[in-house]
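Show me any protein, keeping tokens residue-aligned.
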Amino acid sequence: MKIRFLITLLLLGLAGCSTFEKRAEEKATAFASLGSEAQEKLRQGMVEIGYTSDMVYIALGAPDSKSERTTADGSDMTWIYSAYYSEYRGTSNVGYRRIVDYNPVTKSYVVYYEPVQVDHYEERVEDRIRVTFRDGEVSVIEKTK
């Protein structure tokens, strides 16, 4: 479990963090064209109905996944932002460890066994926020509570 965490941390470090400042710089033209109130909302990671995909990207970063839906009314693109965590599922006995102790007084060895227990975790992924675009603007925002 620790190795997986360290590898993930290393990959994130190599990929570079997507901070607000980097995203605003990347989309500098779109960010500069906004009023100060909208810029502040983006800084706080807030999105609203009517925002463009550039504005949502600046506020929240790249989505974890995207889905497209086509209906008689038109096409929608949904950006999905997920939360990743490990959920504790309990402890189980996986065997026994043999312990050998030497007693210098009796000049003999004592062998005993102690249980070995392992904690179990389940990797979980949940949608944190879903942002749906219609005609290039946010039309629906769904957040988990």
